[in-house]
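Hi R.,

Here's the chain you asked about this morning:
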Amino acid sequence: MGTEREEGFPKFEYGQWTFEGEIERLGAFASGASRAKGPKRWFAVLVVVSFVAPVVVGGIAFFAQLF
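And here is the predicted structure, written out as tokens:
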């Protein structure tokens, strides 16, 4: 993936239901979210936080049980 911009839906290298495909699509979402402005950007941030928050809370709970 380069830095060139394309119109429309991006072409992905990996299948949609593979682990690599999920990572590739999340990266494309993050790339689009970083270029968005206004309410679209805030919504994208909300979506990212909703994905990351359970991992952070689970990690904190895991380390709290260890110590």
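One quick note: The chain has a mean pLDDT of 85.

Cheers,
M.
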